[in-house]
User: What shape does this take?
Amino acid sequence: MVFSYKAKDQKGKLVDGEVEASDQREAINKIKSLKLSVVSISQSKKKRSKEGKVKPKEIVIFSRQLSTLVSSGVPIVQSLGILESQAETKNFKQVIERVRQDIEGGLSISDAMAKHPKAFDELYVSMIRAGEVGGILDTILDRLATYLESSSALKDKVKSALMYPMIVGSIAIVLTIFLVIFVIPIFKNIFMGFGAELPLITRIVIGTSDFLKANIIYIIIAAGGGAYGIKKYISTDAGRRKFDYILLKMPVFGMILKKVAIARFSRTLGTLVKSGVPILQGLETVAKTSGNKIIEGVLLDSMKSIREGGKISDPLKKSDVFPSMVVQMISVGEETGSLDNMLSKIADFYDQEVDAAVKGLTSMIEPIVMVFMGAVIGFIVIAMFIPMFEMGEIASKAG
Assistant: This one.
């Protein structure tokens, strides 16, 4: 429950705010712990507005600035107040405000942030908690900002590589549908007036056009229903696992997805281990944020291996996701006590691999899309122009 209060500080100044507690007595105790004298308190009736997703860029800037303020000796509550006033979006401003209020109410920084998963994910909260325990919050915040920048750059590389083919492919599909539904019927009416049999290629195109025009509503409904069914299936644990398995096995794309997953795993676990997060907790966090059920299963097996006295690398070796080079480097890192450095080197290497693979994919997809687009539209154009070339013969047969 959230309680609104009015209280006086040690100088007699009247202040107001909110505190979260299970009951009023706990709320009063929390307010007193802030060295405030309660004047009035009541359960807040207003509902907190629903929070939206916060952009990664905002979190990066926030982490950098908070790290600088904390390392300069500015108290955390005051630092959050400064960043709250500088926040660019209303949504993130509200998040920082609530985190500040919760910390004032007695919560730890990590617990206050954990209440806002759309802004601070599990990995972020785990590292902040490690920073609080180790007394190196400013260092952790700086590492978080660096990690988030690297992670965001990796995503941007993949997105930018796929953007052009997707745009060109979408234009090709829209243009083809327009020709088939709106242009071809015009030619059909012209050709039918001659009464002669049309070439096979023309009849195929006209037949396709007639079918789409007659059944377009049913096709849209079927496509929507199919998409909904697939989405529901993927939302189940078994469905998600099967879908993720297929993604990793796809030609070309599967290879890139594997490299992205390895880079993300290495960067995330390396950052967590370097920040002092226990290895089991780190693996659990990485597993939950991996975004792929197959990789999550492998990492959970690694946790089981460690609990039984084994190594992280043992289950990785058995999987077909992690290459032998990665497994060997992790194994060496475990034996030499430099796991965080090894993981960082793996992440740097696979960042470069992803960059090269994405560039190769882009250069390969562009001509394929263009050829496909030209072939489809060319087929339609030829199908429509063949009868026009033979129009004299068709007209004479009709006469």
Summary: The CA atoms of residues 58 and 89 lie 9 Å apart. The longest helix spans residues 137-192. The chain has a mean pLDDT of 81.
